[in-house]
Fold this protein.
Amino acid sequence: MRIFMNKAMSDYDPSHDAAHVERVVNLTQKLLQLEMSSQYDSTVVILSAILHDIEDHKYLALSLTDKNPPRVVYSALLQAGAAPELAQRVQTIVSHVSYSKEKKDPNTVTHLIENGFPELALVQDADRLDAIGAIGIGRCFTFLGAKGKDLGGPWTMDSAMEHLRDKLVQLEGTMKTEAGKRLAAARTQRLREFERWWAQESTDDIDM
């Protein structure tokens, strides 16, 4: 499925590229080890991590709207020989990893995690961990450079800092697993430190 993922995401900018996916896979494996729970299906976890950004709304064609959601992951897994049940489980998880989707409908995410899809918690946490800390800062500015002009509003570096304050520092509070919460706390501290440096340098109040 990595070959499929690389091909499907070949036009994505570096903030959401194959390297991001591999970091999420590694973080998911780390969380899987730290949580030490038998409730997780490792196959479902890894496949969901590999495929979690295939249907990212930020990169889909405009014709693929919420009223006509794609099932690219399900179809790809079936073509690769996966059982329909496995394909459906992974499809359900990747369709609910999104922070923005959870913000709109948090009850659905909670219901899924508590009723047969615990792997969603691991993949969400891993994806959000890669959005914070030093890597997260780099991805934030990369996305601004690639997509910021199309989003409307000012196209300045301050827009990235606004995103950092409004969303990224809030991600720690959305972590589901205990291991994810611990890792997020450390990475969020790095965000706050960077924010302090930014404010300091922006006002020319630099220690000499």
